[in-house]
Design a protein that fits this description.
alpha/beta; UDP-n-acetylglucosamine1-carboxyvinyl-transferase, Chain; 4-stranded mixed beta sheet; globular; binds shikimate-3-phosphate; binds phosphoenolpyruvate; 3-phosphoshikimate 1-carboxyvinyltransferase activity; cytoplasm; transferase; Enolpyruvate_Tfrase_dom
Length: about 400
Protein backbone atom coordinates (compact mmCIF):
# COMPACT_ATOMS: atom_id res chain seq x y z
CA UNK A 1 0.00 0.00 0.00
CA UNK A 2 1.42 3.38 -1.07
CA UNK A 3 0.05 6.44 0.73
CA UNK A 4 0.10 10.06 -0.37
CA UNK A 5 0.34 12.40 2.64
CA UNK A 6 -0.37 16.13 2.86
CA UNK A 7 -0.44 18.56 5.76
CA UNK A 8 -3.62 19.30 7.73
CA UNK A 9 -5.23 22.55 6.49
CA UNK A 10 -5.00 23.86 10.07
CA UNK A 11 -1.50 23.59 11.53
CA UNK A 12 -2.74 24.70 14.93
CA UNK A 13 -3.89 21.22 15.97
CA UNK A 14 -6.04 20.71 19.11
CA UNK A 15 -6.82 16.97 19.40
CA UNK A 16 -6.67 13.94 21.68
CA UNK A 17 -5.30 10.50 20.74
CA UNK A 18 -5.50 7.21 22.66
CA UNK A 19 -2.49 4.94 22.03
CA UNK A 20 -2.48 1.27 23.09
CA UNK A 21 -0.01 -0.39 25.47
CA UNK A 22 3.75 -0.44 25.03
CA UNK A 23 4.83 -3.42 22.95
CA UNK A 24 7.89 -3.87 25.16
CA UNK A 25 5.88 -3.96 28.39
CA UNK A 26 3.20 -6.10 26.72
CA UNK A 27 5.58 -8.83 25.59
CA UNK A 28 7.29 -8.96 28.96
CA UNK A 29 3.94 -9.09 30.81
CA UNK A 30 2.67 -11.86 28.52
CA UNK A 31 5.71 -14.00 29.22
CA UNK A 32 5.41 -13.44 32.96
CA UNK A 33 1.72 -14.36 32.75
CA UNK A 34 2.63 -17.65 31.01
CA UNK A 35 4.95 -18.44 33.95
CA UNK A 36 2.61 -17.11 36.67
CA UNK A 37 -0.97 -17.54 35.44
CA UNK A 38 -2.59 -15.44 38.13
CA UNK A 39 -1.19 -12.28 36.54
CA UNK A 40 -3.81 -10.13 34.83
CA UNK A 41 -2.84 -7.56 32.21
CA UNK A 42 -4.57 -4.31 31.27
CA UNK A 43 -4.02 -2.07 28.20
CA UNK A 44 -2.27 -4.71 26.06
CA UNK A 45 -0.64 -3.53 22.85
CA UNK A 46 -2.71 -4.24 19.71
CA UNK A 47 0.50 -4.54 17.66
CA UNK A 48 1.51 -7.44 15.41
CA UNK A 49 4.45 -8.04 17.75
CA UNK A 50 2.09 -8.43 20.71
CA UNK A 51 -0.14 -10.73 18.74
CA UNK A 52 2.66 -13.10 17.62
CA UNK A 53 3.90 -13.24 21.21
CA UNK A 54 0.44 -14.18 22.50
CA UNK A 55 0.03 -16.87 19.84
CA UNK A 56 3.57 -18.20 20.30
CA UNK A 57 3.06 -18.74 24.01
CA UNK A 58 0.13 -21.07 23.29
CA UNK A 59 2.20 -23.48 21.16
CA UNK A 60 3.92 -26.52 22.70
CA UNK A 61 5.29 -28.27 19.63
CA UNK A 62 5.97 -27.61 15.96
CA UNK A 63 6.81 -24.31 14.30
CA UNK A 64 6.45 -20.91 15.95
CA UNK A 65 6.78 -18.03 13.46
CA UNK A 66 7.23 -14.63 15.10
CA UNK A 67 7.59 -12.69 11.80
CA UNK A 68 9.52 -9.43 12.48
CA UNK A 69 9.21 -9.30 16.28
CA UNK A 70 12.64 -9.07 17.93
CA UNK A 71 11.31 -9.19 21.49
CA UNK A 72 9.10 -12.22 20.73
CA UNK A 73 12.08 -14.01 19.13
CA UNK A 74 14.39 -13.41 22.08
CA UNK A 75 11.85 -13.80 24.91
CA UNK A 76 10.31 -16.99 23.47
CA UNK A 77 13.77 -18.53 22.99
CA UNK A 78 14.37 -18.28 26.74
CA UNK A 79 10.81 -19.35 27.54
CA UNK A 80 10.78 -22.52 25.41
CA UNK A 81 14.31 -23.46 26.49
CA UNK A 82 13.13 -23.52 30.12
CA UNK A 83 9.89 -25.48 29.58
CA UNK A 84 10.37 -29.29 29.85
CA UNK A 85 8.31 -31.17 27.26
CA UNK A 86 7.98 -28.30 24.78
CA UNK A 87 9.66 -28.92 21.41
CA UNK A 88 9.53 -26.10 18.88
CA UNK A 89 11.27 -24.60 15.90
CA UNK A 90 11.33 -20.87 16.43
CA UNK A 91 11.56 -18.90 13.20
CA UNK A 92 10.71 -15.51 11.74
CA UNK A 93 10.79 -13.32 8.62
CA UNK A 94 13.79 -13.35 6.30
CA UNK A 95 15.08 -10.25 8.12
CA UNK A 96 14.66 -12.01 11.49
CA UNK A 97 16.89 -14.77 10.10
CA UNK A 98 19.62 -12.11 9.74
CA UNK A 99 19.25 -10.72 13.27
CA UNK A 100 21.83 -12.34 15.60
CA UNK A 101 20.80 -14.55 18.53
CA UNK A 102 24.05 -16.37 19.37
CA UNK A 103 24.74 -14.44 22.61
CA UNK A 104 21.39 -15.53 24.04
CA UNK A 105 21.62 -19.10 22.76
CA UNK A 106 25.10 -19.54 24.27
CA UNK A 107 23.99 -18.11 27.62
CA UNK A 108 21.00 -20.47 27.70
CA UNK A 109 23.18 -23.43 26.69
CA UNK A 110 25.51 -22.58 29.58
CA UNK A 111 22.46 -22.79 31.87
CA UNK A 112 21.71 -26.27 30.46
CA UNK A 113 19.43 -25.58 27.46
CA UNK A 114 19.13 -27.75 24.34
CA UNK A 115 19.05 -25.37 21.33
CA UNK A 116 20.28 -26.06 17.80
CA UNK A 117 20.59 -23.87 14.71
CA UNK A 118 18.53 -25.04 11.73
CA UNK A 119 20.18 -22.92 8.99
CA UNK A 120 22.97 -20.48 9.82
CA UNK A 121 25.04 -20.68 12.98
CA UNK A 122 24.13 -17.78 15.24
CA UNK A 123 20.78 -16.94 13.61
CA UNK A 124 17.15 -18.15 13.62
CA UNK A 125 15.52 -20.53 12.88
CA UNK A 126 16.44 -22.54 15.97
CA UNK A 127 15.18 -25.86 17.31
CA UNK A 128 14.49 -25.83 21.03
CA UNK A 129 13.85 -28.88 23.24
CA UNK A 130 12.65 -27.50 26.57
CA UNK A 131 14.47 -28.66 29.71
CA UNK A 132 14.68 -27.86 33.37
CA UNK A 133 17.59 -25.42 33.48
CA UNK A 134 19.78 -26.37 36.44
CA UNK A 135 22.54 -23.75 36.41
CA UNK A 136 22.00 -20.32 37.90
CA UNK A 137 25.05 -18.26 36.90
CA UNK A 138 26.12 -17.06 33.48
CA UNK A 139 28.06 -14.23 31.85
CA UNK A 140 27.27 -12.70 28.47
CA UNK A 141 28.24 -9.72 26.27
CA UNK A 142 25.92 -6.76 26.88
CA UNK A 143 26.79 -4.46 23.97
CA UNK A 144 24.78 -6.09 21.14
CA UNK A 145 21.17 -6.22 22.36
CA UNK A 146 19.60 -5.77 25.79
CA UNK A 147 16.84 -8.14 24.67
CA UNK A 148 19.13 -11.13 25.36
CA UNK A 149 19.49 -9.94 28.95
CA UNK A 150 15.78 -9.21 29.39
CA UNK A 151 14.93 -12.67 28.00
CA UNK A 152 17.08 -14.35 30.66
CA UNK A 153 15.75 -12.09 33.43
CA UNK A 154 12.14 -12.85 32.53
CA UNK A 155 12.53 -16.61 33.05
CA UNK A 156 14.86 -16.14 36.04
CA UNK A 157 12.24 -16.20 38.85
CA UNK A 158 10.93 -19.55 37.53
CA UNK A 159 14.37 -21.20 37.83
CA UNK A 160 15.01 -23.19 41.02
CA UNK A 161 17.83 -20.97 42.24
CA UNK A 162 17.02 -17.79 40.36
CA UNK A 163 19.77 -16.26 38.26
CA UNK A 164 22.98 -14.28 38.51
CA UNK A 165 24.13 -12.53 35.35
CA UNK A 166 27.54 -11.02 34.72
CA UNK A 167 27.39 -8.47 31.91
CA UNK A 168 30.51 -8.07 29.79
CA UNK A 169 31.37 -4.82 27.99
CA UNK A 170 29.41 -1.60 27.71
CA UNK A 171 25.73 -2.23 28.46
CA UNK A 172 23.41 -1.04 25.69
CA UNK A 173 19.72 0.00 25.90
CA UNK A 174 19.91 -0.02 29.73
CA UNK A 175 16.36 1.33 30.37
CA UNK A 176 14.92 -1.80 28.74
CA UNK A 177 16.79 -3.95 31.29
CA UNK A 178 15.47 -1.74 34.08
CA UNK A 179 11.95 -2.06 32.64
CA UNK A 180 12.25 -5.85 32.91
CA UNK A 181 13.48 -5.62 36.49
CA UNK A 182 10.71 -3.11 37.29
CA UNK A 183 8.03 -5.53 36.09
CA UNK A 184 9.61 -8.39 38.05
CA UNK A 185 9.51 -6.21 41.17
CA UNK A 186 5.83 -5.43 40.49
CA UNK A 187 4.98 -9.14 40.72
CA UNK A 188 6.99 -9.53 43.93
CA UNK A 189 10.37 -10.79 42.65
CA UNK A 190 13.53 -9.53 44.42
CA UNK A 191 16.19 -8.23 42.05
CA UNK A 192 19.40 -6.25 42.18
CA UNK A 193 21.44 -4.50 39.48
CA UNK A 194 24.85 -3.16 40.51
CA UNK A 195 27.56 -2.28 38.01
CA UNK A 196 27.75 -5.32 35.74
CA UNK A 197 25.94 -7.83 38.00
CA UNK A 198 22.24 -8.59 38.03
CA UNK A 199 20.60 -11.04 40.41
CA UNK A 200 17.04 -12.31 40.39
CA UNK A 201 15.65 -14.40 43.25
CA UNK A 202 13.40 -17.39 42.53
CA UNK A 203 9.65 -17.19 43.15
CA UNK A 204 7.22 -20.11 43.32
CA UNK A 205 3.80 -18.53 43.48
CA UNK A 206 2.52 -15.02 43.38
CA UNK A 207 -0.63 -13.33 44.63
CA UNK A 208 -3.15 -12.30 42.03
CA UNK A 209 -1.56 -9.22 40.45
CA UNK A 210 -2.72 -6.86 37.72
CA UNK A 211 -0.07 -5.34 35.49
CA UNK A 212 -1.29 -2.13 33.88
CA UNK A 213 0.70 -1.52 30.71
CA UNK A 214 1.48 2.12 30.07
CA UNK A 215 0.87 3.26 26.50
CA UNK A 216 3.78 3.13 24.07
CA UNK A 217 6.33 5.96 24.34
CA UNK A 218 8.05 5.04 21.06
CA UNK A 219 4.65 5.55 19.38
CA UNK A 220 4.31 8.87 21.23
CA UNK A 221 7.54 10.04 19.58
CA UNK A 222 5.73 10.68 16.27
CA UNK A 223 3.36 13.11 18.03
CA UNK A 224 6.31 14.93 19.58
CA UNK A 225 7.64 15.29 16.05
CA UNK A 226 4.25 16.55 14.77
CA UNK A 227 3.88 19.11 17.56
CA UNK A 228 7.46 20.30 16.97
CA UNK A 229 6.59 21.01 13.30
CA UNK A 230 3.21 22.69 14.01
CA UNK A 231 2.34 26.29 14.88
CA UNK A 232 2.95 27.67 18.37
CA UNK A 233 -0.21 26.96 20.40
CA UNK A 234 -0.74 23.42 19.04
CA UNK A 235 -1.81 20.96 21.73
CA UNK A 236 -2.12 17.18 21.40
CA UNK A 237 -3.33 15.11 24.35
CA UNK A 238 -2.05 11.52 24.53
CA UNK A 239 -3.23 8.75 26.87
CA UNK A 240 -2.52 6.66 28.90
CA UNK A 241 0.84 7.98 30.06
CA UNK A 242 2.54 8.81 33.34
CA UNK A 243 5.51 10.89 34.36
CA UNK A 244 7.30 8.03 36.10
CA UNK A 245 7.58 5.64 33.20
CA UNK A 246 9.31 2.26 32.92
CA UNK A 247 10.01 3.14 29.28
CA UNK A 248 13.34 4.80 28.49
CA UNK A 249 11.83 6.55 25.45
CA UNK A 250 10.04 8.83 27.94
CA UNK A 251 13.27 10.87 27.67
CA UNK A 252 11.37 12.40 24.71
CA UNK A 253 9.75 14.89 27.10
CA UNK A 254 13.23 16.31 27.84
CA UNK A 255 14.68 16.06 24.34
CA UNK A 256 11.74 17.76 22.64
CA UNK A 257 12.07 20.82 24.87
CA UNK A 258 14.94 21.62 22.49
CA UNK A 259 12.33 21.71 19.69
CA UNK A 260 9.95 24.00 21.64
CA UNK A 261 7.64 21.20 22.86
CA UNK A 262 6.46 21.16 26.48
CA UNK A 263 4.85 18.15 28.22
CA UNK A 264 2.22 18.51 30.92
CA UNK A 265 1.03 15.45 32.81
CA UNK A 266 -2.54 14.98 34.01
CA UNK A 267 -4.30 11.93 35.40
CA UNK A 268 -3.22 9.18 32.95
CA UNK A 269 -2.73 11.73 30.17
CA UNK A 270 -0.10 14.07 28.88
CA UNK A 271 -0.51 17.15 26.75
CA UNK A 272 2.24 18.04 24.28
CA UNK A 273 2.21 21.72 23.38
CA UNK A 274 4.24 23.80 21.01
CA UNK A 275 5.42 26.54 23.33
CA UNK A 276 8.01 28.44 21.29
CA UNK A 277 9.67 28.69 17.93
CA UNK A 278 13.24 29.48 18.94
CA UNK A 279 15.29 26.56 17.68
CA UNK A 280 19.00 25.78 17.93
CA UNK A 281 20.86 25.39 14.65
CA UNK A 282 21.94 21.87 15.54
CA UNK A 283 21.47 19.33 18.38
CA UNK A 284 23.58 16.46 19.76
CA UNK A 285 22.20 13.39 21.53
CA UNK A 286 23.64 10.09 22.71
CA UNK A 287 20.77 7.65 22.04
CA UNK A 288 22.37 4.43 23.33
CA UNK A 289 19.58 4.34 25.94
CA UNK A 290 16.78 5.14 23.48
CA UNK A 291 17.67 3.73 20.05
CA UNK A 292 14.08 3.54 18.77
CA UNK A 293 13.63 7.31 18.68
CA UNK A 294 16.67 8.02 16.47
CA UNK A 295 14.64 7.99 13.26
CA UNK A 296 11.96 10.29 14.72
CA UNK A 297 14.53 12.84 15.88
CA UNK A 298 16.47 12.83 12.60
CA UNK A 299 13.26 13.51 10.63
CA UNK A 300 12.13 16.24 13.07
CA UNK A 301 15.48 17.97 12.53
CA UNK A 302 15.13 17.67 8.75
CA UNK A 303 11.64 19.19 8.90
CA UNK A 304 12.73 22.09 11.11
CA UNK A 305 15.79 22.90 9.00
CA UNK A 306 18.07 21.88 11.87
CA UNK A 307 21.18 19.76 11.93
CA UNK A 308 21.86 16.90 14.33
CA UNK A 309 24.66 14.66 15.47
CA UNK A 310 23.21 11.45 16.93
CA UNK A 311 25.55 8.97 18.62
CA UNK A 312 25.17 5.64 20.46
CA UNK A 313 23.50 4.16 17.37
CA UNK A 314 25.64 0.97 17.15
CA UNK A 315 22.52 -1.27 17.47
CA UNK A 316 20.64 0.32 14.56
CA UNK A 317 22.22 -1.82 11.81
CA UNK A 318 20.73 -5.03 13.32
CA UNK A 319 17.17 -3.84 13.80
CA UNK A 320 14.21 -4.30 11.38
CA UNK A 321 16.53 -2.97 8.67
CA UNK A 322 19.93 -1.34 8.77
CA UNK A 323 18.42 1.90 10.08
CA UNK A 324 21.58 3.97 9.65
CA UNK A 325 21.84 3.13 5.95
CA UNK A 326 18.08 3.47 5.43
CA UNK A 327 18.01 6.89 7.12
CA UNK A 328 20.91 8.15 5.03
CA UNK A 329 19.20 7.05 1.80
CA UNK A 330 15.78 8.47 2.64
CA UNK A 331 16.93 11.77 4.24
CA UNK A 332 19.18 12.34 1.21
CA UNK A 333 16.18 12.13 -1.15
CA UNK A 334 15.05 15.51 0.25
CA UNK A 335 18.44 17.02 -0.61
CA UNK A 336 19.98 16.58 2.85
CA UNK A 337 23.68 15.97 3.46
CA UNK A 338 23.97 12.97 5.79
CA UNK A 339 27.03 11.15 7.07
CA UNK A 340 26.98 7.89 9.00
CA UNK A 341 29.57 5.66 10.63
CA UNK A 342 29.21 2.49 12.69
CA UNK A 343 27.48 4.27 15.57
CA UNK A 344 26.48 7.78 14.55
CA UNK A 345 24.55 9.92 12.11
CA UNK A 346 25.19 13.54 11.22
CA UNK A 347 22.61 15.61 9.36
CA UNK A 348 23.50 19.11 8.08
CA UNK A 349 20.79 21.80 8.27
CA UNK A 350 18.79 22.14 5.04
CA UNK A 351 16.45 25.06 4.35
CA UNK A 352 14.44 23.84 1.33
CA UNK A 353 13.24 20.25 1.01
CA UNK A 354 12.88 18.48 -2.37
CA UNK A 355 9.21 17.66 -3.07
CA UNK A 356 7.51 14.67 -4.76
CA UNK A 357 9.57 12.20 -2.72
CA UNK A 358 8.45 8.58 -2.13
CA UNK A 359 9.85 7.10 1.09
CA UNK A 360 10.94 3.46 1.01
CA UNK A 361 10.26 1.70 4.30
CA UNK A 362 12.40 -1.51 4.19
CA UNK A 363 9.89 -3.59 6.22
CA UNK A 364 10.59 -1.21 9.08
CA UNK A 365 7.57 0.33 10.84
CA UNK A 366 9.70 3.15 12.19
CA UNK A 367 10.90 4.25 8.74
CA UNK A 368 7.24 4.75 7.74
CA UNK A 369 6.13 6.36 11.00
CA UNK A 370 9.13 8.68 11.39
CA UNK A 371 8.64 10.25 7.95
CA UNK A 372 4.83 10.71 8.31
CA UNK A 373 5.05 13.99 10.30
CA UNK A 374 7.26 15.51 7.58
CA UNK A 375 4.07 15.97 5.49
CA UNK A 376 3.58 19.10 7.64
CA UNK A 377 6.48 20.61 5.69
CA UNK A 378 6.29 18.95 2.26
CA UNK A 379 3.83 16.55 0.61
CA UNK A 380 5.29 13.05 0.31
CA UNK A 381 4.50 9.41 -0.42
CA UNK A 382 5.16 6.42 1.82
CA UNK A 383 5.67 3.04 0.17
CA UNK A 384 4.47 -0.17 1.82
CA UNK A 385 2.81 1.96 4.52
CA UNK A 386 1.12 -1.08 6.14
CA UNK A 387 4.43 -1.90 7.88
CA UNK A 388 3.30 0.29 10.79
CA UNK A 389 1.23 -2.62 12.15
CA UNK A 390 4.38 -4.12 13.70
CA UNK A 391 3.97 -1.74 16.63
CA UNK A 392 1.14 0.73 15.82
CA UNK A 393 -1.65 -0.53 13.49
CA UNK A 394 -3.80 2.62 14.04
CA UNK A 395 -1.04 5.05 13.09
CA UNK A 396 -2.40 6.37 9.78
CA UNK A 397 -5.94 6.65 11.18
CA UNK A 398 -4.63 8.62 14.14
CA UNK A 399 -2.81 10.99 11.74
CA UNK A 400 -6.12 11.43 9.88
CA UNK A 401 -7.76 12.34 13.20
CA UNK A 402 -5.21 15.16 13.48
CA UNK A 403 -6.28 16.41 10.06
CA UNK A 404 -3.54 14.95 7.83
CA UNK A 405 -4.79 14.21 4.33
CA UNK A 406 -3.95 10.61 3.54
CA UNK A 407 -4.87 8.87 0.32
CA UNK A 408 -4.12 5.39 -0.93
CA UNK A 409 -2.55 5.51 -4.41
O1 LIG B 1 13.56 -4.98 25.19
C1 LIG B 1 12.85 -4.35 24.41
O2 LIG B 1 11.61 -4.33 24.50
C2 LIG B 1 13.51 -3.58 23.33
C3 LIG B 1 14.85 -3.30 23.40
C4 LIG B 1 15.57 -2.50 22.38
O3 LIG B 1 16.37 -3.38 21.63
P1 LIG B 1 17.99 -3.55 21.83
O4 LIG B 1 18.25 -3.89 23.24
O5 LIG B 1 18.31 -4.67 20.89
O6 LIG B 1 18.60 -2.24 21.46
C5 LIG B 1 14.59 -1.77 21.45
O7 LIG B 1 15.26 -1.31 20.31
C6 LIG B 1 13.45 -2.65 21.03
O8 LIG B 1 12.53 -1.97 20.20
C7 LIG B 1 12.65 -3.14 22.21
C1 LIG C 1 13.81 -2.58 17.25
C2 LIG C 1 12.50 -2.71 17.39
O1 LIG C 1 11.84 -3.87 17.65
P1 LIG C 1 12.33 -5.38 17.86
O2 LIG C 1 13.82 -5.37 18.11
O3 LIG C 1 11.56 -5.84 19.05
O4 LIG C 1 11.97 -6.11 16.61
C3 LIG C 1 11.62 -1.52 17.28
O5 LIG C 1 10.42 -1.64 17.57
O6 LIG C 1 12.10 -0.42 16.91
Amino acid sequence: MRLQLSAPSNKNIQKAIQITGSKSETNRSLLLQALFPNIKIKNLSNSDDGEVMQKGLLISEGEVDIHHAGTAMRFLTAYFASQPGKEVVLTGSSRMQERPIQVLVEALQALGADIRYMKNEGYPPIKISGKKLKQSKVSLPANISSQYISALLLIAPSLKNGLELELIGKITSVPYIKMTLGLLEQIGVSTSFNDNKITVEPLENIEETTLVVESDWSSASYFYSIVAMCEVGTKIQLSSYKQNSLQGDSVLSKIYQDFGVETQYGKNTMVLSKANDSLPNTVNYDLSNAPDIAQTIAVTCLGLGMGCHLTGLHTLPIKETDRLAALRTELSKFGAKVEIDAESLTLRPLSTLNSGIAIDTYNDHRMAMAFGPLALKVGLMVNDAGVVSKSYPDYWNDLKTLGFEIQEM
